[in-house]
Design brief:
Structural class: alpha+beta
Number of helices: 3
Shape: globular
Strand content: 35-45%
Radius of gyration: 14 Å
Length: 136
């Protein structure tokens, strides 16, 4: 398990967009992943809310890591859907993804994305689901 988690951390560290957006890979398990992001002005859209693309990125990447870990290696997203429930406002975003069903050929994963306020209260701002498949 440590080898695959080390592999996942290496993959995350090698993603130029993840570094650009300043996301962090906060936690991993055998079938889950958590990404966090400190909200900055350049993450926001014209109304002052976190841009939907930023929220979608967090969900997509958290799902890909959760599915990849559940499948035991390198994986790719095959399908992705997101529902935005409320604006992303606060100081941080947390994306928590978990593989819900895994076979040799795919992992179906769900992700909850929370906006964290200064007092650490978390508000669910989006739900996502994705299908992850082995790469190659």
């Amino acid at each position: 398990m440590e080898d695959i988690q080390a592999f996942a951390r290496q993959v995350f560290a090698s993603q130029p967009f993840s570094q650009f957006i300043e996301a962090e890979l906060a936690a991993l398990s055998q079938d889950s992943a958590e990404l966090t992001l400190t909200i900055q002005d350049h993450h926001k859209q014209q109304h002052g809310f976190v841009h939907g693309g930023v929220i979608s990125y967090l969900a997509d990447n958290a799902i890909a890591f959760a599915g990849g870990l559940a499948l035991g290696g390198n994986a790719l997203m095959a399908e992705f859907k997101i529902n935005y429930l409320r604006p992303g406002v606060g100081t941080r975003l947390i994306a928590r993804a978990q593989a819900r069903s895994t076979s040799k050929r795919m992992a179906i994963c769900q992700c909850e994305i929370y906006a964290v306020e200064g007092d650490e209260s978390q508000k669910l701002c989006a739900l996502a689901q994705g299908t992850v498949v082995p790469a190659g």
